[in-house]
Write a structure and sequence with these properties.
Layout (H helix, E strand, L loop, with lengths): L2 H33 L6 H18 L1 H9 L7 H32 L10 H23 L3 H4 E2 L1 H4 L5 E3 L4 E3 L3 H40 L8 H36 L5 H39 L11
Antiparallel strand pairs: 1-3, 2-3
Helix pairs in contact: 1-2, 1-3, 1-10, 2-4, 2-5, 2-10, 4-5, 4-8, 4-9, 8-9, 9-10
């Protein structure tokens, strides 16, 4: 086995193992909260869907890691279609969930005299339908992927095919590629635009808040400090997503217009796409781990204990 393949395999293995561990811990925290009878906040519901989507994205790292260590490993015809389809769907849901989380927090911290104040009451009721719409939209947008995905053996005698180590994708033609690129770019730009707008608005609100509380005693601003910490956490999450996602878009766009397959570029693109799902849970795990521990302590002491968690 070449040292380059060994390095690629260890990179994918590390990302996949680390990310699955972190996302599993987050999912466990949500399960504990559900069994403890804790009422799920709209923000927590978004993070739950984000965690599930990230977990699905990381599942692609398993065949990719195996293919890097063993050049004879391939998925079958049906498995290739399912793997690539749900990877792209989950990637889109991850983008949509992060965007929705940013917008919700921007509405939450908006001043009571702003035009967004009326949305504070309506927004929590729309989270569930919005998440369902996000999943349905991504499943519809990426419905073309199974049509052009095949296994390695079936694609060996097909011209204009791109190999991804364990699966292959047929070239549908320039017209179809152009239409798909426009559709996918519109989807990404819409969510990224919302995320960047919400992030910019939150930074503006935080700046005004910082100037205002400089003249207020620290003990009187403890509640606003928790909101500030929540906003800063979501800003960090959104900024990380934008950074990794934009880099991934650049690689994906370049790979879609070239003929053939550049293996090292394909591996770099996949590694970049897996960075956010792998490191995202560790940006959130401090809050939710302490939340679940608090709930466990309450449940051991009394069955009627009310668990109060810190704001995210």
């Amino acid at each position: 086995m070449a040292s380059r393949d060994l390095t690629v395999g260890f990179v994918f293995l590390s990302q996949t193992a680390l990310g699955m561990l972190g996302n599993s811990v987050l999912l466990s925290c949500f399960i504990i909260a559900d069994f403890s009878g804790i009422r799920v906040k709209p923000k927590d519901m978004i993070v739950k869907h984000l965690t599930i989507a990230n977990f699905i994205v990381l599942c692609k790292g398993i065949p990719q890691t195996t293919a890097a260590f063993s050049k004879t490993y391939f998925l079958d015809y049906v498995s290739c279609k399912i793997t690539l389809y749900f990877h792209r769907v989950a990637r889109g849901v991850s983008l949509g969930s992060t965007s929705l989380l940013s917008v919700l927090q921007a509405i939450t911290i908006s001043p009571s005299n702003s035009k967004w104040a009326q949305l504070k009451i309506r927004a929590p009721r729309t989270i569930g339908p919005s998440l369902g719409l996000c999943w349905a939209l991504q499943m519809l947008i990426y419905a073309f992927i199974p049509l052009y995905t095949t296994d390695i053996r079936a694609g060996r005698n097909v011209t204009g095919i791109k190999y991804f180590g364990y699966c292959a994708v047929m070239n549908p033609g320039r017209l179809i590629n152009t239409l798909n690129a426009i559709l996918l770019t519109s989807n990404d730009v819409m969510f990224l635009g919302l995320m960047m707008w919400a992030s910019g608005y939150m930074m503006f609100i935080l700046h005004k808040h910082k100037q205002r509380v400089q003249h207020i005693h620290r003990s009187l601003s403890s509640k606003s400090s928790s909101v500030t910490r929540a906003t800063q956490s979501i800003l960090t999450l959104a900024s990380s997503f934008v950074l990794f996602y934009v880099l991934s878009i650049v690689f994906t766009s370049y790979l879609s217009v070239i003929d053939g397959t550049i293996q090292w570029l394909t591996n770099t693109n996949l590694a970049m796409a897996m960075c956010f799902p792998a490191f995202c849970p560790f940006l959130l795990i401090k809050h939710y781990a302490s939340f679940s521990c608090l709930c466990c302590t309450c449940s051991r002491q009394t069955t009627h204990c009310t668990c109060v968690a810190r704001e995210l």
